[in-house]
Structure formats: C-alpha cells, structure tokens
Amino acid sequence: MFKILQKTLSTGIATNPYPQTAALVSEQFRGRPAFDFPAWQDARPAAEACPTGAIAVRDSGLTREVAIDYGLCVFCGECARVSYAGGVRMTREFELATRSREGLRITAQYELYADGTHKQLISTDEAGAVTAVTAEMLGREVERTVRQALGRSLAIREVDAGSCNGCELEIVALNNPVHDIERFGIHFVASPRHADMLLVTGPVTRNMEMALRKTYDATPHPKVVVAVGACGISGGIFGSSYASIGAVDRVIPVDVYIPGCPPRPEALLHGILLAVYRLARA
Amino acid sequence: MMNSLLRELREKLGEHVAPVATESSAEACFQIAPGDIPSAVEYMRDRYQARVATVFAEDRTPAEGVFYNYYVFEQAGNPGYLILRAAIPAGEPRFPSIAAQLPAVNWQEREIQDWFGLEATGHPNPRRVALHDNWPDVHPLRKEFALDQALAPFAGEQHVYRPTLGEGVFQIPVGPVHAGIIEPGHFNFAVAGEPILYLQLRMFYTHKGTEKLFESLPIPRAVFLAESISGDSAFSHGTAFCQAIERAAHIEPPARAEAMRVVLLELERLYNHIADIGAIANDVGFAIANAHAGRVREMAVGLNEALTGSRLLRGMVCVGGVREDWSGAQLARLGGALDEVEREFGEMVALVKSSDSTRDRLEKTGILRPEKAEALGVVGVGGRASGVDRDVRRDHPYAAYALFPFRVPVYREGDVWHRVQVRIDEAGESFGIVRRAAAGLPGGPHCAPHQPIPADRCALSAVEGWRGEIVHWVRTGRGNRLERCKVKDPSINNWPALVEAVEGNIIADFPVINKSFNLSYSGTDR
Q1: Which among A187, A197, B233, B444 is most buried, taking Cβ atoms within 10 Å?
Q2: Angstrom distance (rounded) from CA B315 to CA B234
C-alpha cells in the first residue's frame, strides 16, 4: 500500500490539459492534408496514390473536377509525397469533426492544359468546408453545457460495428490518466440503455448490422450518434462489399463525424464535445 | 534435404508427387493428390515433428481448372517452410479433413468450406464458421463471386448452440455488443452456479471481405489494407504483407530498412504488452496499475508517432522498405524515450508483482495445459506460457532479427499469471533489441526502388506479431495486383485455447482469462 501511494505521489498529475491548452502533437504527426488549390499543378498523382479514393478526379474535355473527402482519408500522407510540385502538404491539424457529412467534402474545378496539368483554378468551395470549431472554444463552455444538458454526466456506449480495433485502442485511451475523459463528466457505460451517446466505429459489417440497429433502438431519447474514423464515416478502405455495408449512417442516423485512421484521443474528445453541443440543443 | 524429402514422399505416396517451383529458397513446395492429405500430414508429423502452420485454399479454376489446398509446415531448427499443395478438381469439390487428427486446423478447414465451397469430408464438426448460418449459400472467395455482389437480406436459420441441460445449469449469452470497449463476438456460457461448464464461441461478426478485397486493390494500396487487418498489429501485418510481395518479386529491402522494421516491430510489441499487463491487473480490480500502464503506453505511442507520424505505426512500412527515413533528432528521441519507458515499465511491473491480492487472482487461473496447447497449435504469448517454444523471429528469422539474438521466455504453468510473465520477459527483451538495432542502424537508403510486381509469383511470409505468428501468402496477378492473399492471424489458432482455459473457472474470471490471451476479432474474422 505504501509503495502504491509513493508511486502515485511521485508521479504527480499526468493529465494532458487539452483542450484548455494545445495538444502535445509531435512534429511528425500526420493530420489534415491541406490543399493549395491555386498552386496545385496536377491532382492526378495524388488521386492515383490515395489508398481509399479520398481524392478523386473527373475530367471532361479541358476541365477537371477534383473531389476531396476527409471522411475517406486515412492520413497516410501519400498525396503530399507524390505531389512533387507542391499543392498538397500534411498539416498537424486533427480537430476535424463535423456535424454534417457534407462538411468533410471539398471540390475544386480546374481548367486544364492538353497534357492534363492544371492551367488555372476555376472555383472551389473550400471556404465552407471543415468547421473551425476548435475544442479549445468548446472546452471553455463544455462543463457548463454538460451540466445543463445532461445533469453533469454524459454516458457513452461504444459500439464496434466491424472495426479493425484501431479506433477502439484510441477510444480506450480516452480513459487513461493522460486523456482522462471523466474530468468532463463523460464516461463509458456497459449498456446502451444507460447511454446518451453511441460512439460507433465501422465499417458496419453485414453481420453487425442487426446488432447495431438493436443497440440504437435500445438507447433512450434524446440520443446522439457519433461515427468514428474513416471506416465509420465512409467504410474507409473496406468500402462496401458483399460483407461490408460501410458507413454507419447507412444503418442509423449520425449526428457527428470524427475523421481519422484512427482519430487520436484529442480528436475523439473534440468530436464528442461537438456532439454534446448538439445534444444540448436538442 | 528437399530432394531427399521428395524421394521419401514419393516412396510413401507414389510417383505423382511433384516439385512446384518457388520464388524463395526458404520455401519448398510439392504437389500431392487430395487423397494423400491425411497420410502426408501424418508422415510429416511423425517423421519430422512438423507442425501445420496454416491451411488455406485458392481458386484457380479460371486459369487451371482446379482449386488448390495448401498445407504449410514448419519444423523446429529449420528456418524454411514446406508447403504441400493438393489440386482439387472443380468437378469434385471436396478434400479429406484432417481436423479429427489435428484439432489445430478445425476452423481453417471450415473456412475453406464456407469461402470456397470445398467440402472437408469427415470433418468432426462441419458446421459453418466463417459465414454465419443465416447467410445464403454463397462462396465469396470463388473467382466467379464478385466483391460487390449484393446479397438479399439474411433470412436463413440462426446458429443453434449446444443446449444447456440439467438442474441448476444455466446458459449465459454474451455479445456481440460487449460491456467493455472491445470488439464484437458472441460467447455462450453454460454454467453450474459460478463455474463454467463449457463455452461456445461465435466469431466472424467483423468479417469484412478482406481477403477478397486484396484481389482488387493495386499492391501499393493493399499495404494499407494489410495495416487494417488488426489495428493493434498494423505494423506486423503490414510487414508480413510487404515481405510476401518482396519475396515474390525478388526485392531486397536495404539493411537500414530491415533494422528500422525490427525497431518498429518491437515498439509495436512493447505498447501492446504494456497495455495488456495494465488491463489484466484492472480486470481483477487493481485499477492503479492500469492507470500507470495507460500512462506508460501513452509515452510509447508518443514515441511511435515521433518515428512514424502515427501513434499506431500506420503508413510507415512499404514494399521495398519503409516510407520515411529517420533523422538524427528522431533517433535521439528514440533513445531518450525508450529509457524513460523502460524505467516506468519496470516500476509498473514492480507494483503489479507487489500486490499479493492481484497475484492470488491471476495464479492458477485460466490454465491451458501444455498438451492441449500443443494439440491445438496455440501460438505466441498464449503458447509460450504453456510450454510451446516457438517464435518466428528466432525460428524463421526475417528483417534483421538474425543480427539481434534474444531470449524466448517459455513457461509450462499456462495460467493467466504466466501469460503476464511472458509479456514482462518479452518486453524486457524488446527494449534490448530496439536499443541494439537503433545503435547499429546501417547507413544507406531506407527503401529499395522496384518495378511493378510481375504476375503469377507466389510467396509466403511470416512475422511474430506481439500476439504470435502472422502468416501471409500471396499470388501476384497482372497490373500490379494480387490474385490471392491469404492472411492468418495468430488469433485463429488461439480461440479454441480460450475455450479450454476457461473450463471449470468461475464466470467472474472470464474477462481476465480472455484478456490474458487478448485475441484479435478483426484478425480472425477479416
């Protein structure tokens, strides 16, 4: 007993104060790929290299539409690596959760040279995409909101609807002393009947479809659903097939989407706080 | 050796036994007839004490008019693998089962039945395993079956479990959605009061069509799919896959890449072992140890991120080596962080060991006897805690492991505590391996440039993931794609061991026994 106390005292506080302060993200961390649309000379190599089709090009004559979907992105950095002439770079941004699936999509239209490289940017809807609600902004008010909306507690039921377990590892990490999600009055519960929120990872498999529906139905109103990771949002690299339905929102309604492969714990926290706001307004 | 083996097999089975060309000198392959399978397996076992590492099938009907069944053998002291291949005519889609003699292949044979529609004749329990009972009569790994084939809503019969009979005997169904944050599967317990009489498992809830999907992706993209087979083994599965491609195409990763892979494979083992020791302590109520383990694991995954850009080591391995080189600053960070993790790990382990109540709950709990472990073909941590002295890193060296000898811990007690002890010992070895590999990191490139992968080459690759033996086998196809990719996660070997280990234990100890094996559902189900 003495040893345990001694170790606890000598360790001190381990909790990372995010979102009150910035997250401790290493230099090498691969967050959101950022696109410099006017400077991007050719989207084809990036589209070719992307393992999940998160960057897609569609040419018609001498015009091209480039569609980017952060909901499919696995943050591997291949797009930046093969875009030798610039136009794509990996940033360390991870607060990417949105309340709408559309919010994760960007398109850009280009006029092309005959060799298929970009002559000039015609238009892009980038400005409207990827919400800039940082967890820091959310964090300042979150305690008050959680208290108002949920009587000082948010109960989450996690549902693995077919994941590779990568997302689960990071969700489990929310409970460790470093990320300590309980400091917000948020905790994980054993039954959907006790839950305010379902945190669902994917891709939803054919074999988990029924279980996911039953879990959703067993969760009392008001409830929010958060789709976690590329596979939960879109099916990710697994897409849809004979065995995989793919996106969680093809089976149950989703309120918040958290991109990542998997999302780091701070990104999960950001998305969960965003969902709490949604619940507070319900 | 191989010539003499061919002679022996011909003597035993007949002159039709023929050598099949392989791409790697570490693999020998002979073709046998389907009827030979039981006697060939028996001969390899009795004469060479060879173990069947995996059994799988391939649909070659469009190209050759046959299915192939592959039986992969390994033998103590021999770094090579022997593969026996049986050609099964499309018109007679059946092969003799060996599951009654060799329980280790029970699930894998049934997987072949479900996915290829080849009947394992004489199988002691031929029910579906890899497709659930309510699925229509389809065989997804046949070439005629399309990946995106739409299946009607499942209307078939649900699985019927062995009934639980007798006064005071109850059935407890659990899952697929569990109480904790874990993967989905169904456990059906029969209990008499507290003790568990028997456990029935239903897996494959997370079946994602992964092996089928491998047949449609360009190889560079398929590397990312390999990383998504089992999220906690992303680097091990990724490496197993890339090695298979490299062997098929005769690509030699540079020495620097091989050493970097060793560092990252061991860091993967470390972060998982650290988390598991904490989680096992937590399951018997020692939450403080788990809190420390969670903290130390964060240090380890932070180091992963500094070395690869990903906390879970994703996006780093590639065909030919690794994607990014390390700077001096990254290597310095590795040295410093590793010392800190090792010190903290040591203190966390001391805490667990000092708790008599924790040890009391873990010792003699969930015993898997060595005879059972051997018969079931149990691998990895679960095997080594029950006397199975195998480790792919030592027995079939890959990457740069031959340069860094290490000790393989083996115990015979087979209880939860010794599965913890194996993890403690292995983590200790891993710190040493990482330090030696990083200190002597060779110069030169970190990736071998290569041409598109030639078609119709087959190769096998094995990696000792933190959980145990991972095997990938590929046949390359045209257009830099694959014809077939077989994935064997160690979990598929070890689930039946869990069934054995829980018998007679109280149901309250099931979570900790399960955690002590910590098998991958996604790796099993694919």
Answers
A1: B233
A2: 9
